[in-house]
Amino acid sequence: MGSENITPFQLREIILNARKPLILKKFNCQWSCFKDGLSKWCAKYDSYSKEKPQFEKMPVKNELNEPQWERKRTMERMSAMEFLNLYSNNEDCSTWSGLNYKRRNELPVESTTGVDFGCFGFPNVNDECTFWLSSKGANTPCHYDTYGCNVVVQIFGRKSWLLFPPGTSGLTTTRIPYEESSVYCLENFYAPTAMDVIKLSKLSGQCYHYVLEPNDVLIVPRHWWHFVEALETSLSVNAWIPLSCDVDNQIEECIVKYFMDKMIANKDSTTRHYLMNPNQLNSNTSDDELFNILEYLLEQKNNVYEHAAKKTSSVHQYHYIDENNLISLIKSFGNICEVSLMADDDWEMYLKRNCTRCNSEKINEGAVATTLRNSEDILINSICSPYIVQTIKEEFCRRYIKNKTKE
């Protein structure tokens, strides 16, 4: 059976029970705002926008022995059509640019008409979906999302997705730069050095890879690592599906934020810029606010959350279908397949090709200045490592429950 035979209920079952990344090939969502093509979409965006949006900008050649963190990007105001004219079909650009992670309410209504994740069984996430308009080379450093599972719809152009399972050995977690709900790794897949290539080659046999074409849909299971890069001018829309198990990770993120807030207290602006992702620099939460949130989450976890999740359509149970039954369901549709492991030779070729972007003569000339000691950097990442934070959460929850029983 093809995509026209899949019901939203069946898609929801598949998405909520996927153990590995899945591709839904050539699934035409028929979202009306995109029916006239990318150029017309950009023109419509401009005609209804109150001002020119700010695009991220970054050199194609990497002068850092690290991922292209957001803190190193510059911002440039231009219209969507100016972006399209500058970057589309231009192979000689020395920079890439992107209008990334824009929530639906940040775009003109006319640019989002018809976008409805109800076709996947999740109508309640429509207001939270995000848009990504990217030129060739625009990339997101390798990370995993702490909340939800991810549904990605490729509208125009092609994007490369490199994925690794949760707990992949060889990936070094970091909370610097700190971004709530994202755990990054230190490995540089965009422009590895020659030494990096040797180290990263050891990840062979753990790498999943797929190039999304227009009308492809990618399902990213919870906590899967991913490095994403636009191979040409592209537009994609995604939505994170809230899960009942997210409450544990929300508690953990509260713990991380508490520690990070203490770590950045009294730091100079340069070091704060180094420690925090740009979107977190103005995210101020008092201790009272943070502990109110934390106590609310603890009550959800311990008393009502699971019960409420079964009665609401906005938060979903996860992995409730036996894997064998899921495989049978997937096989009944001819246009759904698992993302494949990369062959060893393809992985080596991928790394060596990306290595050519590394400007070895100027490596680290653009490094962010910081007064942070190396030992302090290590301490922050040690305290905030996922394993340690999970252990703290478990002990904290145990003590919290014990204390509640005394009241």
Automatic annotation (TrEMBL):
Intracellular or extracellular location(s): Cytoplasm
GO cellular component, one term: cytoplasm
Classification via Pfam families: Cupin_8 (PF13621)
Keyword Cytoplasm: yes
Residue span, JmjC domain: 96-258
Alphabetical keyword list: Cytoplasm
InterPro entries cross-referenced by the UniProt entry: Cupin_8, JmjC_dom
PANTHER family: HSPB1-ASSOCIATED PROTEIN 1, HYPOXIA-INDUCIBLE FACTOR 1 ALPHA INHIBITOR-RELATED
Function (record text): May play a role in cellular stress response.
Protein name stated in the entry: JmjC domain-containing protein
Record organism: Stomoxys calcitrans
Taxonomic placement: Eukaryota, Metazoa, Ecdysozoa, Arthropoda, Hexapoda
Underlying gene: 106083941
